[in-house]
Amino acid sequence: MASSGMALWRQIGETLAEEIERGDLLTNQRLPSSEVLAARFGVNRHTVLKAIGHLQAEGKVRIERGRGAYAVVNPLQYNVGPHQLFEQNLVGSNLVPSRAVLSVVECYAPGDVAEALQLPKGQQILLVTILGEASGAPLNFGSHYFANSRLPGIEGLFRALEGKGSQQFSFLSLFRQCGVDEYRRKDVRIRSRMPSNDEARHLNIPAVEYVLTTLVVGVGPAQVPLTYAETSFASSRVELKMEF
């Protein structure tokens, strides 16, 4: 690659970014391996990896551990307003929504969860760990706390899904089986932080990629709290959007 006074890794990064923006590399298309790119540009792998790392920081590629780097043209706009829930967000972007229920555990409500759900501290609730997927790709990883005393039968419904892999279901569809026909987000807080080991593994992201985390209280009729969830999204794949 010819020198232009610009660092070689930056030249490579700009070339790849132009190819992504031009459509030569499609959204979610895997980039050639670092060995192939190093041969193409006449540099060593370290230079290529530095370029790709910079593109990841800019949100133009995402790196999946053990699988390589993938082009990101338009991150999913995920609406965290009151009514646009998981399924509507994905269907609106021509993606297939699915969820995998990883674990279902009865536990005592931690203080912050009890407060959010307006329950006595230490009351038993249901903790469900869920991986959300968009057309088979991991999108979010969340700990969902359910006030099961207000959702009779919810534990059995989740246990029937536990460990079964990706399933197409919505919270509202489950809640209706418990006699609750109305559900929406009430309070939403958003944070940015480094991922936990579990988050990085399930979202298939590097340990150095930030996650966007939402803390959400969901309510039913008469604004009675039903759920409290901490859900993490890979920052390279999602833009969180607020609409009220």
UniProtKB/TrEMBL annotation:
Q: Which GO terms of the molecular function aspect are on file? A: DNA binding; DNA-binding transcription factor activity
Keyword set for this entry?
DNA-binding, Transcription, Transcription regulation
Domain of life the protein comes from: Bacteria
Source organism per UniProt: Rhizobium miluonense
* Domain HTH gntR-type: residue ranges: 6-74
Task: Kindly list the biological process annotations in GO that this record carries.
Answer: negative regulation of DNA-templated transcription
What protein does this entry describe?
Answer: GntR family transcriptional regulator, phosphonate transport system regulatory protein
